[in-house]
Write a structure and sequence with these properties.
By secondary structure, the chain is mainly α. Helix content is 35%, strand content 5%. The protein has 22 helices and 9 strands. The protein has helices spanning 55-59, 64-74, 90-101, 132-146, 152-167, 238-251, 256-266, 328-334, 377-384, 386-397, 399-415, 449-457, 463-474, 504-521, 525-543, 566-569, 591-601, 606-618, 641-646, 677-684, 686-696, 701-716; strands spanning 271-272, 316-317, 338-342, 348-352, 576-577, 582-583, 651-657, 660-665, 671-676. It has a 3-stranded antiparallel β-sheet with strand order 7-8-9. The longest helix has 19 residues, at 525-543. It is globular and about 90 Å long.
């Protein structure tokens, strides 16, 4: 052999790039294929903890006082590898917690601090999250010490709350109970941009009208938590910025007073960092090479730490004493006139026109050096916007009111995605019920379930009406922030009673039959609605030839209108429902993509989704009584007819317009059925067809019924956090 023949030598033993995101995947050949990864976000196979691990049980043994003591000590134990500004980390941890919680958006409940997702891409590498990775590393010794007794999600939020306490704020409370995820939520939609900090015009219909921002987004640019601190698209204009602040914070479920409190309180401690250039930083955590050990944005020139730290590019503190909770933010903002300047990193910032040296903050490392304070464009918005200014004046006139308002707003910010109080744990859970918690009173369990079922059966309501009403009541649940669901029977209250998707006239017909049963029996209407669905389902199961009970857990309560923040429930209104074959209007997103998004919010698996769609079709629950996808002549029986039809090669499937298809006999050409896209996708998509074929098998009729019942029961009980051990 020729000595220079290296055939086969040194070749990579695996397909090049197959284990990184840098390479293309085989599915890139079909960019419009449905992405089922969004349903796999609930996959527990990624969880490294034992299958019998219970975070709630571990929390019972947590020494909360010791944990808080360790966090308080951490706040002033500066580390050489990442020095604390002024010897205090209170600003650092307030920001880490804020940026974890601040990604929450009301429209779909995604984002927020409830899962510890800040540890993973894309959030761990967002431009707006620069150096939050350092905060998590500073917390590591504490996480290591307490282990499974404290989740990263809880620890991150608690660190920010303790930081404010160390600074001098009397906080409102804290709840444990956030459970960690173990993989990136990479299929969450954060925007369509392909580059960080792309001009915000692309996510607005009109950038001058913030209300035109694409739903469900809240942040104004890709990679930001809320607004650009330099101004709209980096161009300073406090009035334009004020409009974006108002819309963004509203989409984070905050009103004007809460917005001002959070802005002022968030900037009362800590500082901005821009004493250098971002060109001297290493790549972000997801891009940095292995020697950086998961840390990003490390300085490559000079120290890159302490006074040389670069984060936002803006440089300076907002107050004279940035480690102390006080009224210094308002004193600084309203005590001076401000002019535009450039930071050492070249970012726009506002600096006082005239300021006495004794009113300036000191250098983060050398207290003998005075530094110029700053304001961002969002801070100036608090001064120039008339509504925000009026709120600021109210806070300045009553500092205690400001303290209380901020404490409650901080609590809301950091707990908004945790769901009802039944999920909250620990000694510091506030006793007060807050309307944004969607409170529901405890319901009775002291009633005769069988007697109620018998009365429901005598109402004359159809299987479709019974099942559809229970489904409509429960389908509002979303696992992203644990809101919605059947508990509370809010389907009878504004705004849900008037939602188009709930068919108000049909809904009132059903409720008029169920409400007297609830009143006479002592059961909540919420329980009776779910029981009605179960009665209809059991009738359909019997009609299909099976004797299978549908589980029921009593104890739901009935919320009142006073307990219901109607405005905050508006984003929960369904715009489509694949289970009931309904689409409010045509959207840029396909009906089948809407189906997967809703299934993910309901925490359904692909198998559960398939079972529910196929079952709901034959139960006669279609919106408006349409026959699309009702591939059976036994409506009201829980059969596998939907699946046997969708997989039957005797038929052809032809579009006839408006998203409707005719199913024709191949030989005669006769129209046998009609269907929508969400019906046909169970035959056309390879993954969904695989599930449909399972249920179409001759030997799986009973399996289908049991799978449907299991999926149904899980949806009905999705918001029953009182059942958690």
């Amino acid at each position: 052999m020729d000595g220079n023949d290296n055939s086969g030598a040194g070749k990579c033993p695996v397909m090049h790039g197959s284990a990184t995101n840098l390479s293309s995947t085989v599915m890139d050949w079909w960019p419009n294929a449905l992405n089922f990864d969004i349903l796999h976000q609930h996959d527990q196979m990624t969880n490294p903890l034992d299958t019998d691990h219970s975070y709630r049980d571990n929390l019972k043994s947590l020494d909360v006082d010791a944990l808080k003591a360790d966090l308080r000590a951490l706040m002033t134990e500066t580390q050489e590898w990442w020095p604390a500004d002024w010897g205090s980390y209170v600003g650092m941890f307030a920001r880490v917690a804020w940026h974890a919680a601040g990604s929450y958006r009301l429209a779909d409940g995604r984002g927020g601090a409830g899962t510890g997702n800040q540890r993973f891409a894309p959030l761990n590498s967002w431009p707006d999250n620069v150096n939050t990775d350092k905060g998590r590393r500073l917390l590591w010794p504490i996480k290591k010490k307490y282990g499974n007794q404290i989740s990263w999600a809880d620890l991150i939020v608690l660190s920010g709350t303790v930081a404010y306490e160390v600074a001098g704020l009397k906080t409102y409370g804290f709840a444990f109970g956030r459970e960690d995820i173990w993989h990136p939520e990479k299929d969450t939609y954060w925007g369509a941009e392909k580059e960080w900090l792309a001009p915000s015009d692309s996510r607005y219909g009109d950038v001058n009208d913030p209300s035109t921002m694409d739903n469900p987004l809240a942040a104004v640019q890709m990679g930001l938590i809320y607004v650009n601190p330099e101004g709209v698209n980096g161009e300073p204009d406090p009035m334009r910025t004020a409009a974006q602040v108002r819309e963004t914070f509203a989409r984070m479920a905050m009103n004007d007073e809460e917005t001002v409190a959070l802005t002022a309180g968030g900037h009362t401690i800590g500082k901005c960092h821009g004493n250098g250039t971002a060109d001297n930083l290493s790549p972000d955590p997801e891009t940095a090479d292995v020697e950086f050990q998961g840390l990003g944005w490390m300085g490559k020139v000079n120290r890159g730490i302490g006074r040389d730290t670069v984060v936002s590019g803006i440089e300076g503190a907002w107050t004279k004493e940035p480690t102390k909770w006080d009224m210094g933010y308002f004193d600084m903002l309203f005590g001076h006139e401000w002019e535009l300047k450039k930071s050492p990193a070249g970012a726009w910032q506002w600096e006082p026109v005239n300021i006495a040296e004794e009113d300036m903050p000191v250098d983060v490392e050398d207290p003998s050096i005075k530094r110029m304070p700053i304001m961002t464009d969002a801070d100036m918005a608090m001064k120039v916007d008339p509504v925000y200014n009026e709120i600021c004046q109210k806070f300045m006139a009553d500092p205690e009111y400001f303290n209380e308002t901020f404490a409650k707003a901080w609590f809301k910010l950091t707990h908004r995605d945790m769901g009802p109080k039944a999920r909250w744990l620990g000694p510091d859970v506030p006793q007060e019920d807050l309307i944004w918690q969607d409170p529901v009173p405890a319901g009775s369990t002291d009633y005769d379930v069988d007697a109620i079922k018998a009365k429901i059966a005598q109402t004359g309501l159809s299987v479709g009406d019974l099942v559809a009403t229970a489904w409509d009541s429960a389908r509002t649940y979303r696992g992203s922030d644990m809101r919605g669901g059947a508990n509370g029977a809010r389907i009878r209250l504004a705004p849900q009673k008037d939602w188009e998707g709930n068919e108000p006239d049909r809904l009132q017909k059903v409720l008029s039959k169920l409400e007297p049963i609830a009143a006479d029996s002592g059961a909540s209407l919420a329980d009776v609605i779910v029981l009605a669905g179960n009665v209809g389902l059991e009738q359909a199961i019997k009609a299909a030839g099976f004797d299978i009970d549908v589980p029921f857990a009593p104890g739901r309560g009935d919320a009142t209108q006073d307990m219901t923040d109607a405005e905050s429930f508006e984003p929960l209104e369904p715009v489509s429902d694949a289970m009931r074959n309904w689409l409010k209007q045509d959207y840029a997103v396909s009906p089948e993509e809407l189906m997967l998004d809703k299934a993910q919010l309901l925490t359904l698996t692909a198998k559960e989704l398939t079972a529910l769609v196929g079952g709901m079709r034959v139960l006669g629950t279609n919106y408006g009584g349409t026959e699309h996808g009702v591939f059976t002549d036994r409506v009201g029986s829980l059969t596998t007819d939907f699946f046997t039809t969708i997989t039957d090669m005797r038929y052809t499937w032809e579009p006839v317009g408006d998203g409707i298809y005719e199913i024709r006999d191949r030989v005669s050409g006769d129209v046998k059925h009609t269907a929508t896209r969400v019906d046909l996708v169970f035959g056309s998509n390879s993954i969904l067809r695989a599930y449909a074929e399972v249920y179409a098998q001759d030997d799986n009729a009973e399996k289908f019924v049991r799978d449907f019942v299991a999926a149904w029961t899980r949806v009905m009980n999705a918001d029953r956090f009182d059942l958690i051990n």
